[in-house]
Design a protein that fits this description.
The chain is mostly helical and 72 residues long. The protein is 50% helix and 6% strand. Strands 1-2 form a two-stranded parallel sheet. α1 links the parallel β1 and β2.
Length: 72
């Protein structure tokens, strides 16, 4: 799961819920970290959840989603 700014807190809370309910490994990551560092570690089998709200951070999330979709 990843999010930016105030969505990052929601992302962290969501990762704890995934770990508790589904008993599956989950990470909360800032959008900028996903774009620059962790994109090389992803493949088409990785399940990604994006938390986006219509505010000033929306452009970061959409850029990362488009970048990820083009490179997988």
């Amino acid at each position: 799961m990843f999010g930016q700014a105030c969505n990052y807190a929601t992302t962290l809370k969501g990762t704890f819920k995934v770990k508790d309910v589904i008993i599956m490994h989950s990470e909360g990551i800032l959008v900028k970290e996903m774009k620059h560092a962790l994109l090389a570690l992803t493949d088409e089998n990785l399940f990604i959840i994006v938390i986006i709200t219509c505010d000033g951070t929306c452009r970061w999330e959409t850029k990362v989603i488009l970048h990820y979709m083009l490179h997988t």
